[in-house]
């Protein structure tokens, strides 16, 4: 069994959303961390609620809209005066995120090795296109897959199924890489080979199978390529 | 259009989980609020992940088990030494919760009016049976519906469908009552008439339709019974 392609989650995995928290702190001193945390949690919750509704065709909204709604709710929770200008400033942070420092060299190395490397993200196509272009990654990432066409967010299997369909490979021959433990779990259940990039040293989930690999940066991707999938403990984060 | 029956969410709506936070604070001074919040968030997340997996038959675990796993993860996050004794003490708080003070009179009034009043909960049948018995509500609540038979947690429509099936009524003639905004939203999407009991004065969701009614205590149930469902703003929380 060999890894023949790599798919990355986008937000938090390839793109560093920390700048969003910085901007939130500048706008709302002392509340930036709380706002960005509530914003992120509600953003994820909304993706799940529209997907679990049983009528995602009726209730689906693009990630950009859910992200905005989640920001508004976070501000409501904290009693912040989110002016239109502040809202636009924070939303625009999501459009132009920076890369984690090690990512470019990892992507370049994958390209040098001839291993297809793409994105599979909840982000809608326009968001992803702008983010990839802003970060100067257009040459290094293909395919860039959004869940938008299936109107179901991860961890719905219809979202994960986009990867094997686009790459023409079985899921187990694709390494799915995410910094979100829940995303790694969903991908593992779906059948991908999985790497959880646990940048913050968070505890492992207490539910389901462990990811096949765990590491602290995207560099771990290169280490995974030569390892058998069954060696789950080999690079596990202690 | 008339409300002919009422279904209540259990945890946080009928039963006050505050005692859980108190016990957590006694065990881990200064960390009780954080632990109980992480615990609750992870508990809900796990119900969603197993349901969204696309194979809930394979990945479903009873609510009791997910609750325990979520507690363990919360302790992991905070770096707490959750001994087996501490874990059992906290889990047992979930078995024997107190009622919110107004609830008994509301349930008694529904019984006096001949309006069926039951539970539709993520809790598994044993948890619910113990909670109802502990609170002395066995005479006042029927049916007590758990999502367990369908192995899908709210907000999956298969969970909400248990209510109309058990009561022999269309969803819109059933008032679904929850303190969880996401639960009220899921029930509204499903087709119930809905009351969000917003005890904490939380902001409304920025997603989907508002619940048909909003109030600050379970007493609002009685006010809803005589009101037309279309009068959404009539008892809305400002």
From TrEMBL, chains A, B:
It is an enzyme of class 3 (hydrolase). InterPro entries: 2-HAD, HAD-like_sf, HAD-SF_hydro_IA, HAD_sf, PGP-like_dom2, S-2-haloacid_dehalogenase. CDD domains: HAD_L2-DEX (cd02588). Keywords: Hydrolase. One of its GO terms (molecular function) is (S)-2-haloacid dehalogenase activity. It catalyses: an (S)-2-haloacid + H2O = a (2R)-2-hydroxycarboxylate + a halide anion + H(+). Its EC number is 3.8.1.2. Pfam families: Hydrolase. The keyword Lipid metabolism does not apply. Catalyzes the hydrolytic dehalogenation of small (S)-2-haloalkanoic acids to yield the corresponding (R)-2-hydroxyalkanoic acids. NCBIfam families: HAD-SF-IA-v2, HAD_type_II. PANTHER family: HALOACID DEHALOGENASE, TYPE II (AFU_ORTHOLOGUE AFUA_2G07750)-RELATED (PTHR43316:SF3), HYDROLASE, HALOACID DELAHOGENASE-RELATED (PTHR43316). Belongs to the HAD-like hydrolase superfamily. S-2-haloalkanoic acid dehalogenase family. This is (S)-2-haloacid dehalogenase. It comes from Rubrivivax rivuli.
